[in-house]
Amino acid sequence: MDILNATEILHDYEVVFLASLVGVDKEEKVKVIEHLEKHMAPGALLMLRSAKGLRAFLYIDVDPCDLRGFEVLETYHPSLSEGFVNSVMVARKLSD
User: Fold this and answer.
1) CATH (residue range 3-93)
2) Rounded Cα gap, residues 76 and 66, in angstroms
């Protein structure tokens, strides 16, 4: 299923996970985030993977300002010694 075709169903979920490989570039990833903002229920959580620094060569970086319509609750950037590449962001959908 193409996420951009999902509309009403998104309103039924309390948490939506957005994988780090969604979108081939920043514009496409932001387009998906905007779609989620339009169709998710107020108060629902968006958990997404991002990248910081040189890791952005592998995965698309998502900046908190890309999450219009969401309140960023937490951002975690692991060190490479922890064995993880992707950062994690948790955001809450604001009221419509």
Assistant:
1) 3.40.50.150
2) 16
Q: Which of 46, 48, 72 is nearest to 60 (CA)?
A: 48
Closest CA to 51 of 74, 76, 83, 24: 76
Instruction: Name residues whose C-beta falls within 8 Å of residue 15's C-beta, 6 or more positions apart in sequence.
Output: 44, 45, 46, 47
CA pair distance 52, 2, nearest whole angstrom: 26
Nearest in space to 96 (alpha carbons), one of 64, 71, 69: 69
- The tens digit of pLDDT for each residue in 54-81 reads 666 677 889 999 999 999 999 998 877 7
For residues 56 and 42, give the distance between their C-alpha atoms in angstroms, rounded to a whole number: 30
pTM of the model: 0.87
Residue boundaries of the structural domains of the chain: 3-93
